[in-house]
C-alpha cells in the first residue's frame, strides 16, 4: 500500500543540527527507520521558513538551503531515499522498496514577491507551496499573526491581485496550491482562482477542534468540490476539542479517528489523507508519537468499518491524484 505523509518538517533539523535521516534521534518523529517500520513510502518534505528569522531575501536563501539539505540526504542514502517529482516517480520508488521524497515550500515568503521564483523552484523539484505560514504577506492573509514579523496589526485579509497571479503561476508550472495556514478569505480567493485541485496539507476541522488553523465544514466541502484533499494533522493543539474537559485532557489516536470520521462525513473518503506535521515543533497525540505508529491508525480505521479501498485512498492515493492532476 502507498502511504504518503503530506507534511513532514524534519528538514530544518537536518540543516540546522546536521541530523542524519539514517539515524534514530530521540524526540524526533520521522527518519528512514521509522518510515520503513511504519510503512510510510512517500514523504512530502516541507521547507519551512520562519519569517522572524528569515525575512525578505533571506527567505529565498533559506528555501535553497533546506532543499540542499534534502539533496545531501538523497546522496547519503541512495538505496533508501529517492528524489521524486511526479506521482509516477513516487509509485516507482515505492515499488522498488524505497522511500519517495517529494519537496514543498511552507510559506509564500519563500518567493520574496518574485513570481519568477515559482518556476525556478518547480525546476528544482518543488511540487507544493503553502501560500502563507503565520503572518500576513503583502499578497496573502494568514490565519494567525506572527509577532516579530507582522509589520502592522494582524487583520483578516485575502489574496491581492499579485496573490492571484501567484496561484495562476503555480497552476501553470504544476505546483500544488497548499492552503493550510491561510486565512479563510485567502482560502476562498485561492479556490476561486485555481484551475487545479488544491490541498490543505496539514489542517483539521473546526467543527471538532476549534482552532483558527483548522477549517470549517463549509471550507471542507469547497475543498472537496475542487477535488482537493485535506491532510489530518496529529498536533495535539489542532486535535483537541473545545470542551473544558477535552481542552485539558491529552487527545489520543481515537480523537484523530473521530476527526477522520467527521472529515469523511463532510467531504467524502476521496478527499482526506495524512498530513502529520511530525517534526514541526509539535507534540503529537498519544498513540501517534512517530511515523512507526501509522499502522495503528489504519488498524483503527479498519475497526471503525473502513474498507481496504477506503484506507488505500486515505493512506496515499488521494494526494497522488491531486499531484497528478497538477501535472497536466
Ligand atoms: Zn505548518
Explain the overall architecture.
With 328 residues, the protein is α/β, with parallel strands linked by helices. The protein has one domain (4-325): TIM Barrel (Alpha-Beta Barrel), CATH 3.20.20.140. It is built from 13 helices and 9 strands. It has helices spanning 11-17, 32-38, 57-76, 87-95, 116-123, 161-173, 184-193, 217-225, 236-239, 244-248, 253-267, 294-303, 308-325, and strands spanning 4-8, 42-48, 81-83, 99-106, 126-130, 176-178, 199-200, 229-232, 272-274. The longest helix is centred in the N-terminal third of the chain and has 20 residues, at 57-76. The two termini are 25 Å apart. The mean pLDDT is 96. Zinc ion is lined by residues 106, 181, 202, 280.
Topology:
Elements: E1 4-8, H1 11-17, H2 32-38, E2 42-48, H3 57-76, E3 81-83, H4 87-95, E4 99-106, H5 116-123, E5 126-130, H6 161-173, E6 176-178, H7 184-193, E7 199-200, H8 217-225, E8 229-232, H9 236-239, H10 244-248, H11 253-267, E9 272-274, H12 294-303, H13 308-325
Parallel strand pairs: 1-2, 2-4, 3-4, 4-5, 5-6, 7-8, 8-9
Helix pairs in contact: 1-3, 11-12
This protein binds zinc ion.
Residues 106, 181, 202, 280 line the site of zinc ion.
**Shape summary:** globular
> CATH homologous superfamily - what is it?
Metal-dependent hydrolases
Q: Overall mean pLDDT score?
A: 96
The CATH class name reads Alpha Beta
How is this structure best summarized?
The protein has helices spanning 11-17, 32-38, 57-76, 87-95, 116-123, 161-173, 184-193, 217-225, 236-239, 244-248, 253-267, 294-303, 308-325; strands at 4-8, 42-48, 81-83, 99-106, 126-130, 176-178, 199-200, 229-232, 272-274. It is of the alpha/beta class and 328 residues long. β5 (126-130), α6 (161-173) and β6 (176-178) form a beta-alpha-beta unit.
Amino acid at each position: 500500500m502507498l502511504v504518503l505523509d503530506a507534511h513532514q518538517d524534519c528538514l530544518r533539523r537536518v540543516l540546522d543540527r546536521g541530523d542524519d535521516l539514517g539515524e534514530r534521534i530521540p524526540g524526533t518523529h520521522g527518519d528512514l527507520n521509522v518510515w520503513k517500520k511504519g510503512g510510510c513510502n512517500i514523504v512530502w518534505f516541507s521547507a519551512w521558513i520562519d519569517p522572524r528569522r528569515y525575512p525578505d531575501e533571506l527567505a529565498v536563501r533559506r528555501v535553497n538551503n533546506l532543499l540542499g539539505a534534502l539533496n545531501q540526504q538523497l546522496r547519503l542514502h541512495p538505496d533508501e531515499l529517492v528524489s521524486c517529482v511526479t506521482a509516477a516517480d513516487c509509485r516507482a520508488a515505492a515499488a522498488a522498496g524505497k522511500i519517495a521524497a517529494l519537496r514543498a515550500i511552507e510559506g509564500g515568503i519563500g518567493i520574496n514577491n518574485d513570481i519568477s521564483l515559482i518556476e525556478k523552484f518547480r525546476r528544482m523539484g518543488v511540487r507544493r507551496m503553502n501560500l502563507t505560514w503565520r503572518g500576513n504577506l503583502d499578497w496573502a492573509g494568514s490565519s494567525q499573526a506572527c509577532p516579530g514579523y507582522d509589520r502592522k496589526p494582524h487583520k483578516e485579509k485575502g489574496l491581492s491581485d499579485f496573490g492571484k497571479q501567484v496561484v495562476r503561476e503555480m497552476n501553470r508550472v504544476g505546483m500544488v496550491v497548499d492552503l493550510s495556514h491561510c486565512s479563510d478569505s485567502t482560502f476562498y480567493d485561492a479556490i476561486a482562482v485555481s484551475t487545479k485541485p488544491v490541498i490543505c496539507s496539514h489542517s483539521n476541522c473546526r467543527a471538532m477542534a476549534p482552532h483558527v488553523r483548522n477549517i470549517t465544514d463549509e471550507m471542507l466541502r469547497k475543498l472537496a468540490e475542487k477535488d482537493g484533499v485535506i491532510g489530518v494533522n496529529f498536533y495535539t493543539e489542532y486535535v483537541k476539542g473545545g470542551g473544558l474537559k477535552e481542552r485539558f485532557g491529552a487527545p489520543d489516536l481515537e480523537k484523530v479517528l473521530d476527526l477522520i470520521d467527521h472529515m469523511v462525513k463532510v467531504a467524502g473518503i476521496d478527499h482526506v489523507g495524512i498530513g502529520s506535521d511530525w517534526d514541526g515543533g509539535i507534540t503529537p497525540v498519544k498513540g501517534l508519537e512517530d511515523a512507526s505508529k501509522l499502522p495503528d491508525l489504519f488498524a483503527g480505521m479498519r475497526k471503525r468499518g473502513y474498507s481496504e479501498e477506503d484506507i488505500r485512498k486515505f493512506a496515499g492515493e488521494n494526494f497522488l491524484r491531486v499531484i497528478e492532476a497538477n501535472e497536466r
